[in-house]
Amino acid sequence: MAEKRGRTKTEAVTTVAEGVEPVGDADLAAALPESLTIDVELPAPVHERPADEQAVALLDSGVDPAIVGAVVGTVETGTTVIELAHDELHAVVTTPPTGDDPDADVEIPPLPQTDGVYSRRDMLDGVHQGPESAAMLTADRLIEPRRRNRTAPEGRWPAFVYAVTFHLVNIGDSRRVRERKELDAKIATAFEGGARFVPVLTRKGGVGKTTITTLLGMALASVRDDRVIAIDANPDRGTLSERVARQTRATVRDVVNRAPSIQGFTDFSTLVSRDETRLDILASDTDPMLSEAFDENDYNVVADLAARYYSIVLTDCGTGIVHSVMRATLQRADALVIVSGGSVDEARLASETLTWLEANGYGELVREAIVAINTATQGTNLVKLEEIEAHFASRVRQIVRIPYDEQLAAGSVISWRDLRPLTRQAARELAALVAQGMPVRRGV
């Protein structure tokens, strides 16, 4: 057996080392080992993970459940590290490395382009070929410009032209209609951030302050989509509720007493009267003793509830300018309406009201105030109204004349539709000025 193994090795050496001087079989057998082992080091298998899997890969190391407070493991970058510390599972996602510089910007590949999403101009220019996408079915492409607005124009002549041309010629609304719509847009100004408070006041009674409050509220409520309320805060037994058809005997005192039980607008609406323009009116106390007891704290309760359900709160303040209710009213005021009559003493007292307000820290309200001159009072025909307007123009933002109207002079229920057109127009102008003077957003 040993001899056979020697011949095999001799033949192998002779074959491999051909041309080398041969050696003896005995010497070759003695030089070779009994066995030959060759170790070959092969490269370890490498399993690369895709980039999206590396971003959410967990650690390969196991977690010992007995060691809750220990950190499972840490890696430098490119993986997600899970830490178990004090019964909290905390995952830390690190950013994949971008190179040697850690501050280097990461290049974000662009989103793939979807076939078929292109503009009509690209198709017309021959940049893209093939079927159109749904995004190309736009209104600008499909609707003819002259047929987009099919609203019939308002006004006699525009409506006539629109009719005889079989709706092919639309010259637009008449000038008067355009002015009316522009005024409606001003009155309907939307407000953000809570209710807006507008006190209506003067130092002299009998100048039509309650009437102006009612007209202003009706003009606002007839156009706006939100709610408008007028509160009678007159401590001398106000008559605001007598300007509309009264639907309840509740007063501001009932609101104060029932405030804890009022949970929504349905509960509050049972305490107010609503007219045809959707103006809500909250009456004052009919008992003079209770009216005098209506103080600053009571007004704040009523005002807070009204602010929940109404966008504009008008306050008929009465003649008690130094009454405690006046202080609470002015502190909430976003706009101010001063009422003046057409006589000398009425105009002078209205001007003194502005002076009192400026002296008590309400100068900004005075500069943005609106003066409503009621020309239905006695002595108007003997006074130069232009001079009164010139005086107030130097102190306030705007002046509006309220013309004489038989329905207003009667001192009874006011019907908005039965007022003279000039009276409604003056009330609408007053409402537009008030709405435009208040901040659209709270704090602006």
UniProtKB/TrEMBL annotation:
Domain of life: Bacteria
InterPro entries reported for this sequence: CobQ/CobB/MinD/ParA_Nub-bd_dom, P-loop_NTPase, ParA/MinD_ATPase
Domain CobQ/CobB/MinD/ParA nucleotide binding: 202-343
Annotated region (Disordered), positions in chain: 96-115
Pfam families from the UniProt entry: CbiA
Listed name of the protein: MinD/ParA family protein
Organism for this UniProt entry: Microcella humidisoli
Organism lineage: Bacteria, Bacillati, Actinomycetota, Actinomycetes, Micrococcales
